[in-house]
Amino acid sequence: MSAGPAEAVGEALWAARFAVPADHPCLPGHFPGRPVVPGVVLLDGVMEAARKAGLADGAGLPAAKFLRPVGPEEVVEIALRRTATGRLAFTGHVEGVLAFQGELA
């Protein structure tokens, strides 16, 4: 899994996309019969996108919320934007549906 390049799409917004392959080592056992990508793997994709955009050097993760399971091979669209407090807000959408969101500090 590798997040594609983070592209600037506005003054304070960056976007990237990635998919976790069906043979990724995190999937066996998570969960048998219905594989779900673990949240830590999704957050790794967010961090990689933020690093590629030059935005997450040593970032912490004060908040994250998972709203929908993400399966293998599903394309995750990441959006990053700066908040008024200087944090980096992120969202992850799959097929136009919000799957997770949070902030990096």
From TrEMBL:
InterPro entries the record matches: ApeI-like (IPR054545), HotDog_dom_sf (IPR029069)
GO molecular function, one term: lyase activity
Domain ApeI dehydratase-like: from-to ranges: 14-92
Pfam families: ApeI-like
Full protein name: FabA-like domain-containing protein
Species the sequence originates in: Muricoccus roseus
